[in-house]
Structures are given as structure tokens and as C-alpha cells.
Amino acid sequence: MDRFIAYFDILGFKGFIDNNDKPHVDRYFSHIFRESQSALSGGRLIDGPPGVVVPDVAQGRVNCMHISDSIIFWSIDNSEESFIDLVNVCYEFYWRCMQASFPIRGCMILGDIEFAPFTIPAANGATFYNSSMYGKGIIDAYLKGENQDWAGGYVDRSAINAVNPQTVQQLINEGKLILHPVPIKGQAPVEEHAFCIIQSGLNDIAYSNMVRSIENTFHRHLNGNDLHPSVQRKLDNTIVFLDRFRETPAE
To answer: pLDDT tens digit string along 150-161?
Structure first.
């Protein structure tokens, strides 16, 4: 059955692993779980271990799986409500990662997905794990996510065309989506409904602070190494996107 599916990957993941010691990797890799759980819970928190609050994932309405540097979200069905649920999760996951953890890119589509996990324990303590996920929808989301030349994401037209235009417009009005020419590798940008990186109305100081924050996110795990030219291009394209959220000068 078709579902709304979103595929995200972490930019620079190999460098993150290669350039840092294991304590750094373990500490920061856990942050990506924090960001996905916070997005799934809509920012709702509950008491966890003594003195700690944690995202209330039990109230989530979207599925999530982490596979190495890939994060896959998918809806429980293909209803209009599920479309809204997944857009909200992707929007929150994107801005949280960009401001605190890792640069990411992704795409949300409507397509087929199959997932029926199971385990078979062995007598000696080993386990056979099946977490296979397949379907044309996963391939489509993966290819469209990987083909982008920035740290960003968008809702593909397969998903946009499956819901009422008023629903999409409402998400634009709420500052979750914005029409933007998405940079694509080796071809001209394509205007799509991109996930917002922040709410509009940044003044000059807030804009400068946000630029530094995004630059820090790109450099955070390089351990002093320079950005590869292809990564620098992705950073530049992301800053161009951020410029969309600056205050409109008074006439």
C-alpha cells in the first residue's frame, strides 16, 4: 500500500566517523536520535530518568527507522491527516538537525513501502535480524534525496498532488513549507515545496547568527579539516536558501 515516505541522510557522515575519536562519535551520533524523537513527539516532553526529560515518542503518529546515516519516516496510511503529520515531522527534524547536530538532506514522496521485521534467536546467543524495507517508494525517496545539492529537503509532487491544495497552502502559511528552486546535482534548480529551515522575519543580527550556526553545523565534525569543494557548494546553496527568511525591507 502507498504511504507518505521521507528519506533523509546525514551529509559528511564518512568524515564524521573518520575524523573523530569514538567518544565524540558516540556522543554526537546519539544527537540524531534526539532530533528524530523530538520531531516525532512534536516537541512534547515527559519525565525520564531522575532529573531528565525525554521526547514523548509514545504519542507519535509517524513511523521512523535509523539505518546508519539514513533516517526514514513513513506514515501509517495515505490520508490527508497523515500527510500533515509527516510534513510536520520532517520540518521539525530538519531545522533541529541544522541548528544543533548535522547537515541533512531529504525528500518526502508518496509511494509503495513494505516492512515486516522479525528476529530469530539462536541457541548460542546469536540472532538473525530481518529489518528489510523495500518498495518503489523507498527507491524514489532515496534517489530524490541523494540528488539534491544542499542541506535541505522538499515534498515531492507525488505527495503534493495527493492532497487538497488548501492543505498545502495552510502548511505554507504556518511556515512549514516554502516554494524554492531546489538545487539539483548537474542540472538547473527545480521549484519545489521545501521544508523551512526557520520561521521568516530574521533581522540582520538574527540572520548573521543563523549563518554562523549553519556554518558551524557543516564544520562541527571535521576536526579542523577544510570542507571539500562539493560540500562547500552545498553549504553555499543552503545559505542562499536561508536568505529567503530575512525580513522584507520596508518600502
So the answer is: 999 999 999 999
Q: Under a CB-based contact definition with an 8 Å cutoff, are residues 44 and 89 in contact?
A: no
Domain containing residue 237: CATH number: 3.30.70.1230
Quick one: average pLDDT of 70-76? 96
Phi, psi dihedrals of residue 230, rounded to the nearest 5°:
-70, -35
β pairing state of 177-184 and 187-195: antiparallel
Q: How far apart are CA 161 and CA 157, in angstroms?
A: 6
What's the Cα-to-Cα distance from 116 to each of 65, 107, 130, 134, rounded to whole Å? 13, 23, 8, 10
Q: Which domain holds residue 93?
A: 2-244
Our count of domains for the chain comes to 1
Encode pLDDT of 228-247 as tens digits. 899 999 999 999 999 999 98
Alpha helices in 75-173 (DSSP H): 80-100, 136-146, 157-160, 165-173
